[in-house]
Fold:
Amino acid sequence: MRRLALITAFCGASFALGEGQAQELSSSEVERGRYLTQAGDCKACHTDIENDGIPFAGGRALMTPFGTIYSANLTPDDETGLGRWTREDFYNALNEGIDDEGRHLYPAMPYPYFTLMTRQQTDAIFAYLQSLEPVQVEEQENDLPFPLNIRMSVSGWKLLFFDDEEFVINPDRSEEWNRGRFLVDGPLHCGACHSGKNLLGASKDDEYLRGGTLQNWFAPNIRGGENGGIAHWDEDDIFEFLKYGRAEHTAPMQRMGEVVAISTQFLQEEDLRAVATYLKSLDDTSREPEEAPETARLEAGEGIYFDNCAACHATDASGVPYFFAPLGTSNKLHAKDPSTVIRIILGGARAQPTETVPSMLAMPPFAWKLTDTQIADLLTFLRNTGDRRSGAVSAEAVAEMREYLAEEY
Amino acid sequence: MSFPTRRKILKSLLLGGSAMAAPSAVFGALYGRGEGMPWEPMKGQPPYYGTQEDNFFTVEERATTAVICARLIPSDEDGPGATEADVISFLDRQMAGFYGRGQHWYMEGPFAEGTATQGYQSEHPPAQLYRYALAELDNYCRDRHDAAFAGLSEAQQDEILKGMDEEEITFEGVSAKAFFDLILKNTIEGYFADPIYGGNRDMVAWQYVRFPGTRYDYRDFVKHNGARIDLPPVSLMGRPGWNSPE
Amino acid sequence: MTNHLPKVDVVLVGFGWTGAIYAEKLTAAGMEVLALERGPWRDTPKDFATTFAQDELRYYWRHGMFQETSQSTVTFRNNGAQTALPMRHWGSFLPGNGVGGSGVHWNGQTYRFLPSDFVAKSHNAERYGPLPEDMTIQDYGVTYEELEPHFDYFEKICGICGTAGNLRGDIQKGGNPFEGPRSDEYPNPPMEMTFSQDRFEAAAREMGLNPFPVPSANMSRAYVNPLGLQLAPCTYCGFCEKYGCGNYSKSSPQTTIIPVLMQRPNFTLRTDSEVLSVEKSADGTRTTGVTYVDTSGERFFQPAEVVVLCAYPLENTRLMLLSEIGTPYDPQTGEGVVGKNYCYQVMSGARVFFDEEYTNGFVGAGALGMAVDEYNGDNFDHSGLGFIGGGYIACYTTNARPIESHPVPDGVPGWGSEWKQSVRANFLKTTTVGVHGASMAHRSNYLDLDPTYTDRHGRPLLRMTYDFTLNDRRLTAHITPVAEEIARGMGGREVNVAERKGSYDSMPYQTTHNTGGTIMGNDPQTSVCNRYCQSWDLHNLFVAGAGLFPQNAGYNPTGTVAALAYWTVAAIIDQYMADPGSLVQA
Structure:
């Protein structure tokens, strides 16, 4: 009842922000292509957002564990964009990871996921991209160490880790489930962040959607079935999170905020519900409880929590649904890799404003106020409340993150 | 009416705005234009509380001031006073900073003695007022009692302070009453302020009066119904309970 | 050398509550709006976070939340025989600065003036006969009924927590039976009351009064306002008034309007930009825009179709005087209007000290209180009393911040051992029953430009000539004993009465309710603005804020300030923009 009232309040208030659509959306294929780029979140990587870049003109610096790669210009400029590409070229790019000259693309471009898309779908995307105004840009050198700066080296990686797959429908599952799986494993490429990676940056099958680390963020476990990271979410929660940027349990922040803001908030309800259905079907193995930490740490952590966090997250950590995350069940808090929560406590966080929910609830940074040990004790306490035993957090981990943030900001 | 391009809106969705560099020589920061609310990690206005080394008083001034504070808020069997709370360190740092300089106050002339309802009208910002008044106070004491203020008995000190408060004792260059009012106010500040400013050391004053400090959530206690609430005080930089023993 | 900027539809001078209200409505109607704010950008996580907002020294005593007097202050004197001297640091009132203005550090007590308050002159003259000549009160020109939908909307924007007393003419139990008829209930239920309010309520009922929860902008529950903005539940932290709220639980421009405004491409805000004057056309019939200076020291002329003064009553009045708009008020002749009818608030109270019970003042919020309205406005018969108006009587629990609140009973010295021990003994065992008295206008209370003191740009400071009047003294003398009686019924050990005696003292904090100076009315000879808050002199100049009040009522002003702003901006959008000109033929 209350969920409905809150979301109704949001919807009633939405102002059509609109993005001012490109004027050339006359054909249905272009429209389909536009929608697919929204699903694929292409604009996010292929726009130099930090420097007010033109959408789809590329140039955004993408920090990979191996160096910095600059995204390509997708506008139909003849010299610096896709002006001379054919539909075949574009299909090969998304399906096999090679460009119009046959060179390998770095898998920072998530073609291992886009490979699931059909020729018709890539044609539609291509039609949309070709409808944009051509923008000439200055090419930027990627900043990769030898031998990675040689594209040929990618071929070895692809040999080991890349399968040029087609999407195969599972006849035992509903249409909605299949649609959801296609979206998750294809255009939405959730696993690019949310799946664990091996040392060479490829997704590990047994870590599928169980959480992954990227650019010092831990994208949490998003399996919604038994024992999954979001087992306590129902389908409405997943839908609200992706569509409105607010759900009972949490809001998308920072990196995921970007995804919701540019991509998922614009997708159709049935697609988002399909994603929800699919995610809810993914069970996980139960996690072995970790060792219980020393009482002294728990006591200190409890004191710190009560004095610092309760004002928003409530004394019993139940938060305020849709406003301040309930912590007891949080998949970020209880993740094996606590990077995200460490980072949030140090640097602060803010709930992504969307078209439906314009408010920007933000958590302040605690870096100046709490020491590494205090933050570690706080997290240790929170990860071991109730019957959860998610392990301790070390002061060293906090110190590392603190150093990283000091350099970044 | 010109609307910004889509890319500005794009940026706002993700990074929140940040203050856009304004065109040409305009120095006021620009907000709005569809950029959304600015936000960046690690940004904030945490308290600046000066440094331990900030000081203003000479050795003599510090001694006299510390004694005045100790008379205003004495230590007794009931509990700690200004001395235990280290109010003198608070005052030293305050006088060395913007407050002592009267930097945020309107300190333009002309200066005149105001009525009782016109507030502080001294031409001296607080630190200067202290300096002159302390000198005059010690002179007054040496004239009458052959000793500086710090060398007098507590009863004598109390009597002199009372005289200043009730305007029986006046100084020549500055107003003794204005100084008394100011130092009483500052002493209370130093006694009760957050320990990060140098006074209220270890939160002794908060413990004494049972003020729980900088807590931010009392929802569990709203229905206290007149009962006592026992919560150890917290400062902006925490309390002992935040630290697990090594 | 002044740089000329591209013209906008509307320029707003100041960006607090009224600036945000005007901006939101005007941009929603499609206009290009520019707000110029003298102070800096401020927002919850950066400027009043839960990690440091609760710093008593920094935000109150060192004025971190307020306008710096070194940047601009007022000079003050009680009467024309004295020389006004600068308020070198603030005392009895605390003007805001920066985005959100005083809407960031207010308590959140959100009342509506009574229907009779808007026609104070005609209503009281009709009932009690001619008023004293030097009591220069006037009717507002707008009625409560006309403002009602705007009160309602502001309350929904803020999520005000309360219980209706008069719902469409039906008196409701538990609410304020004297309030003007409301079209709708409050959007949120009242806050949970604490011990002091419970005792007040019981004592008031014993006396046959009708206590009701104070309408509060501190949230009693999570709320989403009509613009889609989220407000969280108040946590009773006791750092409300004079401080910013760290967890989105107090209504302010930041929590209720600004995030939506920031998404609108037709809204621009320039901070650290101080307006120096409002410029006029050569024929003196219109304003052409404003001149402002930013932190580089350079001056800019910002042309606009419409200018709205949203800079707080004191600065609004000063700007009009400096810009030579309208005739300045002359207290000798009684002629002129700009600066006229400056009013304030007449505060008094009775303090209760308990022996066994703890009032625990630190479990508090800015608008956490119970009130009775029997002695407000014309809610009681004033025949033979020699004064008009009144005030609500309330018991609030807002804080136990020790530098500010360390009361001792009468007779205890002001310092020393006895004082210290008394402070400790009484620290968490005291509360106050306060009277929030109205302030009727008087011909010798006014604002003008100081002849001597200037700001850092060389412009004269505003001079405030103000003292309590005979009406004030009689009002407070009559109502304070009622507060005392309630206090005595609350079961404490002793009650000390703090009367309002003597001259107005500009130093001890009372309220930040400075009203008048740019008053509205029906007659251009006696008011600065017409009933649409439009300048009689320049039809494209509008004024906001409590400077519009011809006299101040016995309530906090913000609710009425906001209602007038919504009322005016509706008139601008519906009437003015299509047909610019004076909306009222004089």
User: Anything to note?
Assistant: The mean pLDDT of chain C is 97. Chain C touches chain A at residues 28, 44-46, 49-52, 222, 224-230, 232-233, 235, 237, 246-248, 255, 259-260, 263 (CB under 8 Å). DSSP finds 13 helices and 22 strands in chain C. The first strand of chain C starts at residue 2 and ends at 4.
